């Protein structure tokens, strides 16, 4: 009995000794500083080998966090200069993407100016960020685009300096930057600003032929106190297709309604590296408008050209937005009253003179040269047909007698159509001794309207009555 008890006691003692030794070994392992680091190093090496064997799997394992997960404070010293090419960087170390002296910008809603998505159609997430000088709110900000790779790292594609409007460029709104996003392989960013008169703009860039180009633009304006003063234009710069909307004065709600669709001539696409926060025609037109010595500033319908007059010496210019300098229009002798563009922007009629009898110079905007001159009645009372092929105006003839000759000058007034292809005039409504035909307008390509005036004299006074008439033009 004692032998059995002794045997069981020895077994228990041996078990306790074994457990104590095991605990001591585990504690000894924890006390060794190199043990865990070595294990971690082995795990990283295994991960690296797996990544090299299967890149898609590695990308899934190392995919960058969402913008909201990115660190809000730099976790290491920023690079002295933005990389243009070279080794990819892990997005989780955001500070390595931000140049020295710069800080990550914020949108107007307080969100970080970061966007992720596929920009180059390789199926991998790319990255866009906006950075700024934290001590300067009046200088335009920089846009940096990165291409992602299969390892979940990023290589810089472009550093677009001053491509984003400044923090204080939104007027009373202050921060104008509303959106930075990547959708359908397209980079989008938008601005909004003003006061009671407000404006907004949205730009669409794509990576094409190894460069970044502006492919689309939406811009508009509205007034907070006047629902009838809103308008918006959206244009596809690759095709020239556009949609123009504006507030309808007949709509009590003043809603934006579609008013026009069309196609404008294709023009040189703006590169992101040259973009300075605004579409190119805005830049040229605003430069012209900013000069207080300019007047009669009139952009063409497609905004490819802008006409203006220098107040100081009454010289007239036309500026093609794709050219560095404007062209002077030689041969306009009198003060300009109006600049009237054809609907397709191929012709410009410059109305000049200081009396009711006007002179109009037809200008080729591409060359800046005067093609022909016409005379007509009424400042600005000349118009292009909707199909851009003819001019319509009225003119008096003092060679033929009129019942009103003793009272006013001008003679008989007739309606005239000028064919721009031949340069020949045709009287379509002939004035008589009693009747004048004036103030013509196009109804469409085939019909016009005008005012018919019946003149009479009673007790030495000239009397007249007016009615509106419409006529169809002969083909």
TrEMBL record:
It comes from the Bacteria. InterPro entries: 6-blade_b-propeller_TolB-like. Residues 38-62, 77-87 have a biased composition (Polar residues). SUPFAM superfamilies: DPP6 N-terminal domain-like (SSF82171). Residues 29-87 are annotated as: Disordered. Keywords: Signal. Residues 1-22 form the signal peptide. Residues 63-76 have a biased composition (Low complexity). PROSITE patterns: PROKAR_LIPOPROTEIN. This is Lipoprotein.
């Amino acid at each position: 009995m004692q032998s059995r008890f002794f045997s069981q006691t020895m077994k228990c003692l041996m078990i306790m000794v074994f457990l104590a030794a095991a605990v001591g070994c585990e504690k000894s392992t924890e006390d060794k500083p190199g043990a865990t680091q070595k294990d971690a190093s082995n795990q990283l090496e295994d991960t690296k080998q797996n990544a090299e064997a299967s890149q898609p799997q590695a990308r899934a394992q190392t995919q960058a966090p969402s913008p909201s997960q990115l660190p809000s404070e730099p976790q290491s010293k920023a690079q002295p200069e933005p990389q243009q090419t070279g080794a990819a960087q892990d997005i989780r170390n955001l500070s390595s993407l931000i140049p020295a002296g710069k800080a990550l910008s914020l949108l107007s809603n307080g969100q970080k100016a970061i966007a992720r998505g596929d920009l180059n159609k390789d199926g991998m997430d790319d990255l866009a960020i906006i950075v700024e000088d934290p001590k300067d709110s009046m200088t335009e900000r920089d846009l940096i685009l990165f291409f992602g790779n299969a390892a979940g790292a990023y290589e810089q594609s472009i550093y677009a300096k001053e491509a984003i409007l400044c923090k204080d460029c939104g007027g009373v709104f202050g921060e104008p930057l509303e959106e930075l996003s990547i959708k359908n392989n397209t980079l989008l960013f938008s601005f909004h600003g003003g006061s009671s008169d407000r404006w907004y703009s949205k730009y669409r860039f794509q990576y094409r032929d190894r460069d970044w180009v502006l492919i689309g633009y939406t811009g508009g304006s509205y007034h907070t106190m006047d629902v009838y003063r809103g308008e918006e234009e959206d244009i596809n710069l690759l095709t020239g297709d556009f949609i123009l909307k504006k507030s309808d004065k007949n709509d009590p709600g003043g809603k934006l309604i579609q008013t026009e669709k069309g196609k404008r001539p294709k023009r040189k696409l703006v590169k992101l590296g040259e973009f300075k926060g605004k579409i190119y025609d805005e830049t040229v037109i605003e430069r012209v408008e900013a000069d207080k010595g300019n007047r009669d500033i009139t952009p063409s319908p497609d905004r490819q050209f802008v006409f203006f007059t220098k107040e100081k010496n009454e010289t007239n210019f036309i500026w093609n937005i794709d050219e560095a300098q404007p062209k002077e229009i030689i041969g306009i002798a009198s003060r300009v009253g109006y600049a009237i563009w054809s609907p397709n922007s191929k012709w410009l009629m410059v109305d000049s003179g200081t009396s009711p009898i006007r002179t109009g110079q037809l200008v080729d905007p591409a060359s800046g040269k005067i093609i022909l001159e016409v005379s007509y009645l009424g400042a600005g009372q000349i118009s292009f047909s909707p199909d851009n092929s003819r001019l319509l105006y009225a003119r008096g003839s003092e060679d033929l007698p009129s019942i009103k000759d003793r009272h006013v000058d001008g003679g008989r007034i007739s309606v005239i159509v000028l064919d721009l292809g031949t340069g020949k005039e045709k009287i379509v409504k002939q004035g008589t001794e009693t009747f004048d035909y004036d103030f013509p307008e196009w109804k469409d390509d085939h019909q016009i309207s005008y005012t018919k005036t019946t003149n009479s004299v009673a007790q030495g006074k000239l009397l007249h009555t007016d009615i509106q008439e419409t006529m169809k033009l002969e083909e």
